[in-house]
TrEMBL record:
Residues 1-30 are annotated as: Disordered. This is DUF5610 domain-containing protein. Gene3D superfamilies: 1.10.132.90. Pfam families: DUF5610. It comes from the Bacteria. Residues 66-185 form the DUF5610 domain.
Length: 196
């Protein structure tokens, strides 16, 4: 029985198939390595972010101050955007403040003082409105800005997983004090029968 010799044309297809399989295996291996690298990179980034958050908010007193700074900054940013930045309290003005600078009482006081500082300008811009209408519209405008800033600040703190404990208590106390101070302003301008 005679066996025909193998020619070059008969051997080539199996080599092509083998090289295609090798290339496919190499691609799969590269994809697996890339996926492992991406997972490792993501894990390292998450750990680094966690370390940053811990460093910022881990020390109880300093962490609370930083959280209150975020809360204050977000609220004032929205107020300034709504009413103008002529009376803005900038970080430079806040440097070197007393230890209790970020207490709920003082933070609420600064926010309300900054917001109410625009009332005279609002009155001048709306001279045809009665005072009760000016007060109502002004308070509605600044309350919306305060609500937006507070919401964004609490989202940031919640996203950092630090919006709990004393940070949450301080933020909520600040928001409540803001409401009380705005109600007192309304009452002082319009009397208790018009207060809400």
């Amino acid at each position: 029985m005679a066996v025909s010799p193998i020619t070059g044309s008969q051997a080539t297809p199996s080599r092509r198939v083998d090289s295609q399989q090798v290339q496919a295996n190499e691609k799969t291996e590269q994809q697996v390595q890339q996926a492992q690298f991406t997972a490792s990179s993501t894990e390292l980034k998450a750990r680094a972010n966690q370390n940053i958050v811990q460093a910022m908010f881990g020390n109880n007193g300093q962490g609370d101050d930083k959280a209150m700074n975020i809360l204050y900054s977000e609220i004032m940013e929205k107020l300034n955007a709504e009413l103008g930045e002529d009376h803005a309290i900038t970080p430079e003005k806040m440097a070197g403040q007393a230890d209790d600078y970020w207490s709920p009482e003082k933070t609420a006081g600064r926010i309300v003082e900054g917001a109410l500082g625009f009332f005279e300008t609002f009155q001048k811009q709306n001279p045809n409105m009665a005072e009760d209408e000016q007060v109502a519209q002004f308070l509605s405008t600044i309350t919306k800005a305060i609500d937006k800033g507070y919401g964004e600040a609490t989202q940031v703190l919640d996203g950092l997983k630090v919006f709990d404990g004393s940070i949450k208590d301080n933020a909520e106390a600040t928001r409540s004090l803001i409401d009380d101070k705005l109600a007192a302003f309304r009452e002082a301008r319009l009397g208790s029968e018009n207060s809400v």
